[in-house]
């Protein structure tokens, strides 16, 4: 019996998904530095960046285990490549012209919602229950990120 293997596109998609997580981390660390005057906000950005690193590490693990994954990802590789490029442009724009805190939080909420959808596709793609569980945990973390970011945004908006 032959071991299931991911297609080369699946490997490329997983690599790009890991890159998206690392780029998200980079953006959040930039925001942590830029908004460092507010200790609570800085801590929120750092916590979120740390979670993105954790997610990137999970994609790294998935890539190392790819021969036994038994996954067929239903994400278009071009879409994932496009998202990487858009995220790189977003980081450059933010570095060149840092957004107001409310805008930075809105950007992060939109990004986290996108990542939650991406992780949902991954859950559905893996045959192995342990990998399904790993990506389900990522989705739960995404929802927690979104809730924390939304709480911060609502707190700022309620003080206006």
Quantity of strands, as a count: 0
Highest CATH level, the class: Mainly Alpha
Question: What's the average pLDDT?
Answer: 83
Specify the biggest β-sheet. none
What percentage of the residues does DSSP assign to strands (E)?
under 5%
- The secondary-structure class comes to mainly alpha
**Uncertain segments:** 1-6
Radius of gyration: 17 Å
At the fourth level of CATH, the homologous superfamily is Ferritin, core subunit, four-helix bundle
**Helix and strand sequence:** HHHHH
Number of helices: 5
What is the second-level CATH architecture?
Up-down Bundle
Q: Any idea how many domains?
A: 1
Give the proportion of residues in helices. over 70%
Morphology: globular
User: Termini distance?
Assistant: 65 Å
Which fold does the CATH topology refer to?
Ferritin
């Amino acid at each position: 019996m032959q071991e299931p293997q991911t297609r080369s596109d699946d490997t490329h998609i997983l690599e790009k998904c890991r890159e998206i997580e690392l780029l998200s981390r980079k953006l959040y660390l930039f925001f942590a530095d830029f908004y460092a005057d507010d200790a609570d906000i800085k801590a929120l950005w750092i916590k979120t960046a740390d979670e993105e690193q954790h997610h990137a590490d999970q994609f790294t693990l998935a890539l190392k285990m790819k021969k036994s994954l038994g996954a067929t990802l239903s994400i278009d590789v071009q879409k994932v490549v496009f998202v990487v490029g858009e995220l790189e442009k977003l980081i450059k724009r933010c570095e060149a012209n840092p957004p107001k805190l409310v805008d930075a939080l809105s950007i992060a909420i939109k990004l986290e919602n996108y990542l939650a959808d991406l992780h949902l596709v991954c859950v559905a793609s893996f045959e192995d229950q342990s990998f399904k569980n790993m990506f389900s945990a990522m989705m739960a973390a995404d929802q927690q990120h979104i809730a924390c970011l939304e709480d911060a945004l609502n707190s700022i908006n309620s003080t206006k």
